[in-house]
Amino acid sequence: MTSSVLRRLGAPVLVGRTDEFRTLLDALTRPPSVALVEGEAGIGKTRLIRETLEAPAMRGRHVLLGACHPLREPFPYGPFFDLLRQLEGRVPARLGAVCGALRPYLPELADALPPAPEPLQDHRARQHRLFRAVRALLASLGQVVVVVEDLHWADDGTRDLVRFLIDEPPAGMATVLSYRREDLPGAGLPLGRAYRHPPGTTSVLIPLRPLDVSAVGSLTAAITGSTAVPAQLAAELHERTAGIPFVLEEVVRGLAASGFPAGWNAGRDTLDAMEVPTLLREAMADRMAALTPPAVAVVRAAAVLRIPATEDLIAAVAAGEPGLDGAAGDTPYADGSGPGDEGGADAGSGPLAGGEPFAGGADAGGGIREAVLAGVLYDVGDDRYGFRHPLAQQAVYGSLPGVDRRRLHRRAMARLAAAEPPPLVQLAYHARRAGDLEAWLRHGSAAAEAARELGDTAVAVEILEGLLSDPELRAGDRARLATQLSRAAVIGLAYRRAVALLRRIVLHCEMPDTVRGEIRLNLGLLLYNQAGNYEQGRADTEIAVEELREHPTLAARGMAALALASWGEHPYAVYQRWIVRAERLLTDRSDPALRLAVRGNHVTLRMMAGYPAAWAEAEELVGAGRTVAERLQVARLSGNLAEATTWLGHYAAAERFRHQGQRLAAECGSPWLQGIIDGTSLRLAWSVGDWQGLAERARRLIDMVQGVSGISADAHLVLGLLAVARGEWEEATEELDAAALGDPANAPSPILAAASGAMIRVWVARGELEAARAEAERAIARVRRKDIWVWGADLMPMAVAALVRCGRVADAEAAVAEYAAGIADRDAPLAAAALAACHGVLAYARGRCAQAVAAFEAASARYAALPRPYSAARAAEAAVRCRLDAPGPGRAGPAGAGAAGLGGVAGGGGVGATGGARLAGELAALAEQFAALGATRDAARCRRVLRGNGVSTPSRRGRRGYGDQLSPREREVARLVALGHTNREIADVLFLSPRTVEQHVAKVLRKLNVTSRGEVPGAS
Predict the structure, then answer these.
(1) Looking at the structure, do residues 291 and 243 belong to the same domain, yes or no?
(2) Which of 17, 69, 71, 425 is the most exposed place for a label (fewest CB within 10 A)?
(3) Is the preceding omega at residue 867 within 30 degrees of 0, hence cis?
(4) Does 727 fall in a domain?
(5) Chain centroid to CA 893
(6) 894: helix, coil or strand?
(7) Are 111 and 33 part of one and the same domain?
(8) Does residue 274 register a pLDDT over 90?
(9) Cα 402 to the center of its chain, rounded Å
(10) Is 812 in contact with 841 (CB distance < 8 Å)?
């Protein structure tokens, strides 16, 4: 890595220290004052102090910086002589005579200091005169800030001088002292004795704590120049660094060597494989060098144990190490062996295995106490001791010779094996590190199965992936473990490494067809569901079905999976044939869970298509399920039905299915299924108008699932729809691409149709009508090929409007007729509402305003009954604007311009004719509804029509003054400024003139007390 990259990665902003910054700044600007800044190494004491000193409020003050150093023979008062030398060329004239006592120590200032006084014989008198000289020189400066860092390394003379200065400080002096409490000598008092607050002095203690997960994410983003960091990655970094800023910066520096943050792919594997940053490794080595042999032994044992452990366990693992063997003399081991020898103390850990007491228990306790006081180990509670963060553990562990590590791991295995129940995951870890492959295989396989039964699929997958990575595995063991892994991974969220491992095993390992078929089937489902690679997943599943011809149960499961209509562009009939084949393989003796799975997929298929008869069987099946396996299938069915009924517009039923599915998925331990249902929950919330906090929920889900596209597609779609409602076209395009449009061949069909409908609206709003028409034709063709027309509800109104805007009225009419026929016998209220909106668009295009009004009002009523308030308001707006455009005195009729609000065209009619006031009132009410939802562009469009007709839209609570607070309109402008929009773009989104936007931006900058657009915070 080049030095320029290293410089770039320094944190450009102070993160997570707002309160501490204000406290310190307040103290420094109210002298005389003393600020004690306390915190462990790397916590950010220096950064906080420097940032505070650079604040505008500190201008005009002298700032003198000094620091103590860990010298064996420190020079008395050295930090003060260092900081006073910084006055070279700035020493005030006419100093008191006592300042001459500084001449021998500050030759750089000699010409500006009074003559040196007569020498004194008494040491205490000389010291007192020197202290008075320092105080007099500092007092002559007026407003001055004296900083002494790392006070824990101060010599006694420096501490005495600090106490002298702060007991009677000069009136203009502010003092800042920083230190690490764990490194303070003696009683742990920074000044050597208790500090007593002098009268008239501002005194503050500022303890710095580790950053929380949110602040870790913010600091990582600041270091890398990114706008945000995935929450899961922030949590991983927080766990690894304990929230210590220095450690975090070092970790991010290390990751930068591999291209971080491109794609934010630094998962746990990448973090675990990282080397310990050099500065941290050296710091731990320094701390270890200061420990006695018993303390070193327990720290090494704790490093091998990896996780916090009890005193007894640490002592047992450390028994026999240098300083803990209980033997007389200077030889570390009773048999004379040294560290790294395989004889003597190791001896297969005989004393532990035989239940005899281990040696050195008392020494171990003393060693732990010493290590804790030295800040190497930490008391984490419940008589358990461990390291501050994993990197500290890694630094110590990495310093151990391999033979010593293996010996300590064997001791840990022997001790842990006697526990009841045995900690299988820990035993597997120690077996692997000890080089005992048979024990590793035995404990690892058992640990994975136990984790899967407990619903902790992530742990099961991680263990099995590790086992399968061993090149020395026997073929039979590899096939067995691969089957285990495929079963665990298919219901979890971690899939990337599992997919690669299973692919290699399926292609290159010898095994029976039935075993290969099951592994391939689960691989296909992983690709289907988690990876979002529909085409490859379907191909693998079809091959697996053939490989499982001698295993009808698993073959039926594969066929049922191939009957899920959401994926792919096949016609409905293809999915129907697969589910029929699956049902033919079922018998009365078939596994009940399998029967539930197959029947559930069939009813899901029918419900997705809107067949009314599906309801009765759906209600029957969701009430079934006795065993865990059966309840898992009911959970899956409930989630599928929630998805299907959300697309149909049966929102009350969707909520009921969602609730049941979420509860059962949690009980059965299926994080993937929980995520799928969470995605449906987001779309359901958007549909019913529950938009408050919805974007944050969607982003959290995206962060949580880390690329599981079958789940994240829902979240991206919702974010895209919200962005469209706000008129943020670039964000909308980005999110809609991520949801489906970027890879339509591997996108869920209903999400793809909805994303196309939203994207058409973006194209129309931008005036790119040919792009809108092309997307409309592609999307309609996909729905036609699929032959599930109910999934066109979010597509058809905008697609028809786009065709009309391009003069393709006949094509639009043909598409609507086809759509009407496709939903004619279906129970799909959302599709019925969309059909009414389509009829309104066509009537308006043909100049039949009365019919258009009736159709839009019918659509609005149907949407409202679902309820779907946003769509209802848009249809109602279209009806109002059709009436505004209707022919009348002084009013021109429509000229095929499009579907009023649905087509993105502002009505041109006036409100001054008969009924105009009523229409204006309706439009104003709709503007309020849009604003309440958060649909700022729609609200602005309504207000623009009203303004164009001379109608104002005051707040229902009356106009108010906002003073220094942002008004609602200014908040909208500030948000768009923070997103990087130009004034012209903001004017387009909010239907304002550029001049008006310019005035709003000026007010935003003034009220937020910033000088540039780049400083406007995104949360405004």
Answers:
(1) no
(2) 71
(3) yes
(4) no
(5) 53
(6) coil
(7) yes
(8) no
(9) 37
(10) yes
| Residue 628 burial (C-beta neighbours within 10 Å; 0-12, 13-18, 19+) | middle
Question: For position 463, what pLDDT does the model report?
Answer: 84
Contacts of 996 (CB under 8 A, 6+ apart): 987
Nearest to 883 by CA among 842, 927, 926, 916: 916
Q: Which two tokens stand for residue 815?
A: 């598409």
CA within 13 Å, CB half, 808: 18
Answer yes or no: do 79 and 217 share one domain: no
Q: What is the DSSP letter of 561?
A: H
Q: Who's near 191: CB < 8 A, 6+ residues apart?
A: 151, 159, 162, 163, 177
d(C-alpha 694, C-alpha 696), whole Å? 5
Q: Could you tell me the pLDDT band of residue 154, with boundaries at 50, 70 and 90?
A: confident
Answer whether residue 314 is part of any domain.
yes
**886, 908 in Cβ contact below 8 A?**
no
Residue at which a domain ends, from 167, 191, 207: 207
What value does the mean pLDDT take over residues 417-428?
89
Q: Does 544 share its domain with 397? A: no
| pLDDT value at residue 979 | 66
Domain contains 389: yes
Question: Which DSSP letter does residue 152 get?
Answer: G
Same domain, 433 and 407: no
DSSP 8-state class, residue 10: S
Q: Are 894 and 932 spatial neighbours (Cβ–Cβ below 8 Å)?
A: no
Distance CA 788, CA 572 (A): 7
> How many Å apart are CA 486 and CA 464, to the nearest integer?
10
Closest Cα partner for 843 from 891, 892, 890, 896? 896
Nearest-10 Cα torsion for 940, 946, 948, 951 = -130
Query: Considering only 7-16, 136-145, 470-479, 572-581, which range has the smallest mean pLDDT?
Result: 7-16
For residue 268, pLDDT beyond 70:
no
69: tokens are 């150093």
3 state DSSP class of 992: coil
Q: Token pair for residue 805?
A: 């805007």
CATH number of 517's domain: 1.25.40
Range of the domain at 1007: 968-1015
Residue 84 within a domain: yes
Question: Rounded to the nearest 10 degrees, what angle do helices 231-241 and 245-256 cross at?
Answer: 120
> Do the beta carbons of residue 333 and residue 327 sit within 8 Å?
yes
Do 399 and 428 belong to one domain?
Answer: no
Amino acid identity, residue 66? G
- Report residue 864 as tokens: 């409202």
Of 310, 254, 314, 308, nearest to 281 (Cα)?
A: 254
Number of domains in the chain: 6
CA-CA-CA-CA dihedral for 703, 709, 712, 717, to nearest 10: 140
Residue 345, sorted as left (phi over 0), alpha (psi -120 to 50) or beta, turns out to be alpha
pLDDT tens sequence across 381-412: 888 999 888 888 888 998 999 999 999 999 99
Percent of the chain with pLDDT over 90: 45
Structure tokens at 347: 């001896």
**CA dist., res. 977 & res. 983, Å (int):** 8
Instruction: Among 488, 518, 550, identify where a domain stops.
Output: 550
Helices then strands, each counted (H, E), the chain: 46, 8
The answer on 408 and 369 residing in a single domain is yes
The rounded distance, in Å, linking the Cα atoms of 443 and 441 is 6
Question: Where are the strands (E) in 272-422, listed by range?
Answer: 309-310, 378-381, 384-386
Instruction: Note whether 470 and 437 are within 8 A (CB).
Output: yes
pTM: 0.68
The CATH number linked to 116 is: 3.40.50.300
* Structure tokens, 472: 């020395």
* DSSP assignment of 761-818: HHHHHTT-HHHHHHHHHHHHHHHHHHT-GGGGTTTHHHHHHHHHHTT-HHHHHHHHHH
How many residues in total does the chain contain?
1020
